[in-house]
Amino acid sequence: MHAVMEKAPIGNEEPRNQVEYIQQSREAHHYSPGIQKLYDMALSYFPDAERGNQEGKPAVWSTGLMEAPLLYACDTIPMAVYDLGRLGSAVEAAELSEDIFDMPKETCSMVSALIGEWYMRRNNSVKKVVALSTVCEPLNMGYEMIKEFGFDIHRVEQVIRPVQGGEERLEQMVKFLASEIEDVALFLTGKPVDEDKMRTEIARMNRLMAKFREILKLRLKNPMYIKSLPTLFLLMGSGHYFGKPAEYEILLDELIEELKTAEFVPSPMGKIIPLTWVGARGLEFGVYKAVDDLGGALLSWFTPNPYDRVWNEDIPPLESMARFILDYFVTGSPVNQIKYIEQMIEESGSKGMLFYTYIGCPYGGMHVELFRNHFHQKGVPSSGLEGSWQVGAPSGQLITRVRAFIEMLS
Hints:
The chain has 410 residues and is of the alpha/beta class. It has helices at residues 18-28, 33-54, 68-73, 81-87, 90-101, 109-120, 137-146, 166-189, 195-219, 228-237, 245-261, 285-293, 317-327, 338-348, 362-377, 396-409; strands at 59-62, 77-80, 128-132, 152-156, 273-279, 296-302, 352-358, 382-387. The two termini are 24 Å apart. Pfam families: HGD-D.
């Protein structure tokens, strides 16, 4: 198998913002039509959804993590809150929050950025928000702030599955959460969800996740063909399809075919270090570039996007969604999640783990410490990375940690 020669990026300066990182990644993937289409979809995601909403196509702000079957069954485009930072202008947004709302610089950078983004969109964007109550308490307070801009907030009291409690308690939680989920449909459409449509969307979700897993499996033999950043965007898209489900599925099919016949792309360092990413899906794209440049390959991802799990198609759809959330979703005890990380490490052959959290996030930090302690005892090397929600080039300290860790594994 011949090696693909990579085209040198235009310019040697570090990109200054997320769009420039994407452009640099486009150039690095000049040989892949699928990656070019992926970035086209990502960059058009919010503009197309906002324009469609103005023309009468419903859309709603949501997590963009696992609620696609419900929202698409309600003929509503999900607009992912967490991807707004990656695809927006978070630096300007955070500055707006500080100047207009007198928010101290110590405020969670994610909340500051998102409030600023919504403020800039207050007159020309989607005004409905579905808020999952257990995802992030500071963000819950942020939702209260944007009500004054005319945003309509619908809260979902999302229960958490405890380590203990028994089957009776679990069944009570499933029933309650299914009721909360159905209320989302009433909020969006004024009527109960069309269960046949939701069954179709659950089947779509399972089908697309199987295709995404096939891409990850094919990457094991040629990790640098689809590098870390586009893999992150594919992972992001698995939760909302960039508002275009049919196009996203076609894209996955195209990338599968590319990988089956692709020429081998060598590591710039001559060898490849397989890695597992655990935690938040970082906004500092320079970290992913640094991993690639040093010969690292992120081959498995334990993030809020649960691509390694299957929705149950044999039970009522609202119950299926409730059980999916309680069995996996990001909330809940990390003790229940460790076995899935262990499975990812084994399947990908990872030599080390990168744990990523946002600065000042106690929720993510607590989970990471529990994970790190467990895997340290098992002798799995790891490095903790703390990043910022603000976009742009990552700090020198962050890149130094990535470099030192990968060089140690080399």
